[in-house]
Amino acid sequence: MAVTIHQLRQLKQQGRPISVLTAWDFALATLLDQAGVDVVLVGDSLAMVALGYPTTLALTLEEMLYHAQAVTRGVKHALVVCDLPFLSYQESPQQALRSAGTLLQSAGVAAVKLEGGYPDMVITVHYLVERGIPVMGHVGLTPQSVHQFSGYRRQGTSDQDADRILQEAIALEEAGAFAIVLEHIPATLASKITNTLTIPTIGIGAGAACDGQVLVTADMLGLSDWQPPFAKSYANLRQSITAAVQDFCEDVRSQKFPQ
Prior knowledge:
The protein is of the alpha/beta class. 43% of the residues lie in helices and 14% in strands. It has helices at residues 5-14, 26-35, 46-49, 61-74, 93-106, 119-130, 159-175, 187-196, 217-220, 237-253, and strands at 18-22, 39-42, 79-83, 111-113, 135-140, 179-183, 201-204, 212-215.
């Protein structure tokens, strides 16, 4: 049975944490789905982990669509949410509608995620939701604003910033967002937001009080050559793959393979 937006809200009410991981191709999406993850996020982090860009900013809507199509082909159970890439939604609510509509129609994702909770973005979220497009919000550290933040620094550490992030989260819920990602903020702030909202919060570097947790799968599997301090590796596939390739090369050169 496929996971739905309504079920995510029920999980929050039941106190059962929500698991979220990112995917960028068919093979990975299939494995995540079969392993039982609740939400598969086609995150714009694929710009860095799959395409080699230095930040998420260079990713285009066309590239995101290509990867989202591959992911949805592999998912049968999880809810698939797709990031709207940089400059595909900030111009106007109408631009956001066109971009989100493309991802829902041509890739078959169930919802989109966009960053920011400032007034213009709240208007955009409301505009999309009124037109039948489910939206996940994202506040705290928003990677598409990396240059504005002068790097991937923790957000909400001052009372003023903490209150701003709380108010943004409340405004996004009121605009109709069905869930909100809380990234790299103090655990106390994330707990306060989680207890204030009726919609689920998904934490990444935001402590254990959130209704769910998300990781970039490349970090989780130990594929990244660098990962943020709040990530956890459950495997070291970078080392395992390197060793396997080295063994293959040695067998070929010594004519042990094929036999």
